[in-house]
Amino acid sequence: MDAGTFAVEARIEATHWWFIGRRKLFSREIGRARISTRARALDIGTSTGTNLRMLRDLGFADVEGLDLSEEAIRYCDEKGLGPVHKGDICAMPFADSSFDLVLATDVIEHVEDDARALSEAARVLEPGGTAIISVPAFQTLYGLQDRVAQHRRRYLKRDLVAKVRTAGFEISDVYYFNYLLFLPIWLARRLIDLVGAKFESEAELNSPVLNWFLGCIFSIDVLSARLQSPPFGVSLVALVRKPV
Q1: Count of beta carbons in the 10 Å neighbourhood of residue 27
Q2: How distant is the alpha carbon of residue 128 from its chain centre?
Q3: H helix or E strand, kind and range, residue 125
Q4: From the CB of residue 24, how many other CB atoms can be counted at a distance below 10 Å?
């Protein structure tokens, strides 16, 4: 991501409706998988620390991060989150079977060789361990945020399922989320493109009232998405295991 996009995320990730709701969803999946807080956890593509914050708040003590950006690592360090290592997701500086829990959330869409990235995630995961993988969904939603975040693609469920299986994972669950806001977000992105608006991040298009309102909707969304299994969503999450 660009430095300006990192700066916006670092400033708002603790309170922005999307980051809060996403952390709730991941926290619920970690609990559903009955992962002990004594587990060795790795967050791949930490960005400015939103998942590291979540893992700390859940009580995980043995946590490491990985990011290619020195800017991202600096922000995590300033927040007291980490340690975060500098490294490439396609060639991670960790031994085989080093972690019990791996988070690869909104990262593989940045990588040219996403299959290699997923294979690396499987390599560093302990047999029997759990990974949570999330990606942006539906290419029709490609817009400003994808461009400033330097996304190479968005995914359909069948694409992600095929890739994680090829990487050697077993799928425990996979579903779209942020489905209640799918149409408003699609319309907003088409309008932004139509008028040619320039922002460092879509997160700048916010206010306290809007943040509260969208947070309420997104809270309902992340509570219901797995049960409803909607056929569409702005994002897609997979809970997977490495076979024993």
Answers
A1: 15
A2: 22
A3: strand 125-136
A4: 16
